[in-house]
Amino acid sequence: MMIKRFGVEGSKGTGGQSLPFSKAVLADGWLYVSGQTPMVDGEVIDGGIIAQSKLAIENCLNIMKDAGFERQDIVHMKVVLSDARYFQSFNKVFQQFFAEHPPARVCFVADLVVDCMVEVDITCFNSKFKS
Known about the structure:
Elements: E1 3-6, E2 24-27, E3 30-36, E4 39-40, E5 43-44, H1 49-66, E6 74-81, H2 87-98, E7 104-109, E8 118-125
Parallel strand pairs: 6-7
Antiparallel strand pairs: 1-2, 2-3, 3-8, 4-5, 6-8
């Protein structure tokens, strides 16, 4: 089985710290994208749950696209919200991105280690990447 890691070098978190994990890992047709927060250049963007949700999802999609996957390849998404009151707003953003090809999803509330409102990760599959 082939395993390929993306974004091992150069990944930066808050304060410019180097992150000790891959942005994504490809294994036998499956792509696992690490949790993404609403960051640009290692800093959380200003704005509410709508803006932060859009950017967190876009960050996942950009990593996925860099690995050669497309939106319809997304099988599952995990969503962590810092407050249950953000659920309906997140759903509106989610629907904008995934109206045609909605993945399976889990959404839960937890404290986030980054000072933001949302973190998302995705799992994708495409048989063209099977070894």
